[in-house]
Amino acid sequence: MSDKKGLARNSLGAIESVIMGIAGSAPAFSVAAGTATLVTAVGVLSVGSLFYCGFVMFGIMLAYIHLSTIAPNAGAAYAWVGHVFGRTLGFFTGWGLLTASIIFMVSATIPAATSTLSLISPELAKNTTWVTATAAIWLTLVTIVVAKGIKHSSYTQMTLTGLETAVVFALIIAAFVRYGGKPVHVPSLAWVSPSSFTPELFAAGALNALFLYWGWDVTMNLTEETKEGRQAGALSPASKGAFWAMASLILFYCIIMLVVLIVLSDAEIKDADTGVLAAIADKLFPRPWGYLAVLATVLSTIGTIETQLLQFSRSMFAMARDDMLHPRYAKIHAEWQTPWVATLVIWGLGVLQLFVWSFMNMNSVNEILAVNNSAIDFQICFYMSLAGFACAWHYRDKLKTGAYSAVSFVLWPLIAALFMVFIAIYSIPTFPVITDVIGIGGIVIGIVPLCLSGLRRARKARGGQGNGKLGVASQEQGVGNGELGTGRSELISSEEGAGP
């Protein structure tokens, strides 16, 4: 094993990036996990909430695309925010993603396990031991795929997403054929009219909708492994992947929410809870065909576990490469060309959490899952808003170059970032104390590794090792020297201030 060969460059194309972005948001899993909560919060305005929240997330996506032209980096927002605002905010941007990913490992593997058991042996789906053991098996299998190489991950993701898409499209078509003329909820323009929302309804809808969109940004963590991903300037395949993934997700979520409302009553949605797709399938198809919806949810969940493993491992790798975390986490496997140590870290943390939860009953586990998902919402708002602010500040001169550039580079990302800050602040008093502790505490605890990295760099500086500069990924992908360059010229360090 070696830490010098680097990530597998030029491995992914634009189509693979699109699929990775869509799979990162896990459409079937997200709909199953979040629809009942969203409808409970805002009713038929769920369609409008997904539509408008999609445009908010689109602004963050624009920020990522524009910032990626600084230089491709496996750390994505971590590196770019660090370039614009300095080392500390860059670190906390990356740390916010890491903590959200760690929490999500359980929030995703438990539903994957319960869905799997409901297909194989339904009576075991309420057994905590069987559920956590099955979740650990899924996490281990997906970790092996991710560790073995980016191409293995890509092929697996394309297969899973293809099967999931076929099932979901069958549900959509059958829903409009069967219920298009006799909908349970009659579609209305009021569902998407801004005048239908009060500030409280809008905030409540957005808070729940954000979780459904999260995950598309994995495409930007794979820029160093994407074809032409190292060319600044024009949109790279990774950026094109992010764009088309987001556009597809906005369209999909609005359509699938429309399907939910025309097929299911409010009572049926509430009773279905996290089995909304299965409830739709049961009304459209006879058994056992309805189980295909459960299968689609399983495939979607496995897909999003994979993308979160990729995001975590690439972000930790990039932070360790800059000596913002211990350099051991930046080690690259000589054959697989993946950050194997960082991948093992999140696998270990996930298994540890599952082991702890194996001693609880399933009702307690489900309650904690709901708390964890809300905490993840807060962390999403935190790290993505920093990327939006960084883009708006870095490209502020674009305000003078025309309406298109002003909106795309500055205003849209800025408005999206401000909205996420508002949602985060609004959510704090609405969450249970435990949710705030997990959401905010998970970010605050990052002070410890940040201080440790500062002490480590100080020792190296006294010993004449490294120069402690922070920029973006070097062509050499050096480890543990506290510096990130662009390969030809260095970008600003945290001591030189912020801005372009």
Quick structural gist:
With 500 residues, the chain is an all-alpha fold.
Would you write up a description of this structure?
The chain is mostly helical. It has one domain (14-496): Amino acid/polyamine transporter I (Up-down Bundle). Helix content is 68%, strand content 0%. The protein contains 18 helices and no strands. It has helices at residues 14-25, 27-42, 46-68, 77-85, 87-120, 128-147, 150-179, 199-213, 218-221, 237-263, 266-272, 276-284, 291-321, 340-357, 362-394, 403-427, 433-444, 447-462. Helix 5 crosses helix 6 (128-147). It is globular. Residues 229-233 and 466-500 have low confidence and may be disordered.
Topology:
Elements lengths: L13 H12 L1 H16 L3 H23 L8 H9 L1 H34 L7 H20 L2 H30 L19 H15 L4 H4 L15 H27 L2 H7 L3 H9 L6 H31 L18 H18 L4 H33 L8 H25 L5 H12 L2 H16 L38
Helix pairs in contact: 1-7, 1-10, 1-13, 2-8, 2-11, 2-13, 3-8, 3-10, 3-15, 3-16, 4-5, 4-15, 5-6, 5-13, 5-14, 5-15, 6-13, 6-14, 7-10, 7-12, 7-13, 8-15, 8-16, 12-13, 13-14, 15-16, 15-17
Number of β-strand runs: 0
List SSEs in N-to-C order.
HHHHHHHHHHHHHHHHHH
Please state the oligomeric state of the protein chains shown. Answer: single chain
**Major pleated sheet:** none
Helix content: 55-70%
CATH class: Mainly Alpha
CATH architecture: Up-down Bundle
Our Rg estimate from Cα atoms comes to 22 Å
Integer average pLDDT: 84
**Can you count the helices?**
18
What general outline do the C-alpha atoms trace? globular
Q: Would you give the CATH topology?
A: Amino acid/polyamine transporter I
Unreliable spans are 229-233, 466-500
Structural class: mainly alpha
The named CATH superfamily: Amino acid/polyamine transporter I
Strand content: under 5%
